[in-house]
UniProtKB/TrEMBL annotation:
Alphabetical list of InterPro entries matching this protein: Ankyrin_rpt (IPR002110), Ankyrin_rpt-contain_sf (IPR036770), Neurotrophin_sig_adaptor (IPR052771)
Matches recorded under PROSITE patterns: ANK_REP_REGION, ANK_REPEAT
A GO molecular function held by the record: protein kinase regulator activity
Top-level taxon of origin: Eukaryota
ANK repeats: 1-33, 34-66, 67-99, 100-132, 167-199
Gene3D superfamilies: Ankyrin repeat-containing domain
Pfam families, sorted: Ank_2, Ank_4
Protein name (database record): Uncharacterized protein
Keywords: ANK repeat
């Protein structure tokens, strides 16, 4: 599987072992068969101190795996808030798309990770990128029933509230289906079109 001692230590969050291995010449950017680096494994598993150390060793913050997914996308989708902040401060791109054109913001929005969404927006994440299943962040949040996340996204003045997914559903349609009353009110206040017909 192309594994090394460093990858094992990073995946398991063993900071002392990671530090020792790096000091004795372990290759920080070595990848396993899925193109995961040590930083990516630590970000995926939520090992904040290991991430912090690897960043101090100038690990490639925007390395991607075989699916084009970055450390920031993994941390965003798994709600590792402190790691997301560390990666962003280290210069990680908030708009790096994977092979499905999905950004960290969409990953966080589809799972209702509002703190992460707020952080990404502070670092100028693009709000209207269309990713997997023709979803924007707002479509993903409303479809998933994540009202708080949707309201956070709606604070961004550039957000497209009339966007439609592959079935012709809008954020308003999804919000109504999910019973997100506050989101429905906010969308209507922002002049969402109330008579859109879907394609189903």
């Amino acid at each position: 599987d192309n594994w090394t001692a460093l990858l094992n230590a990073a995946q398991n969050g063993n900071l002392d072992d990671v530090r020792t291995l790096v000091e004795y010449g372990a290759k920080i950017e070595h990848c396993d068969c899925g193109q995961f680096t040590a930083l990516m494994w630590a970000s995926y598993e939520g090992h904040t101190r290991v991430v912090d150390y690897l960043l101090s060793c100038e690990a490639n913050v925007d390395a991607i795996d075989e699916h084009g997914i970055s450390s920031l996308s993994w941390a965003s989708g798994r709600n590792h808030v402190e790691i997301v902040e560390l990666l962003l401060k280290a210069g990680a791109s908030p708009n790096l798309c994977d092979k499905n054109d999905t950004t960290p913001l969409i990953w966080a929005s589809r799972r209702g990770h509002t703190q992460v969404v707020d952080l990404l927006l502070q670092y100028n994440a693009t709000v209207n990128n269309i990713g997997m299943k023709n979803m924007t962040a707002l479509l993903a949040a409303t479809r998933g029933g994540h009202g708080e996340t949707a309201l956070c996204l709606l604070q961004n003045t550039s957000i497209d509230i009339k966007v439609q997914d592959k079935d012709g559903q809008t954020p308003l349609s999804h919000a109504c289906a999910q019973g997100l009353t506050d989101v429905v009110a906010e969308l209507v206040r922002h002049h969402a079109y109330v008579n859109t017909v879907d394609k189903v």
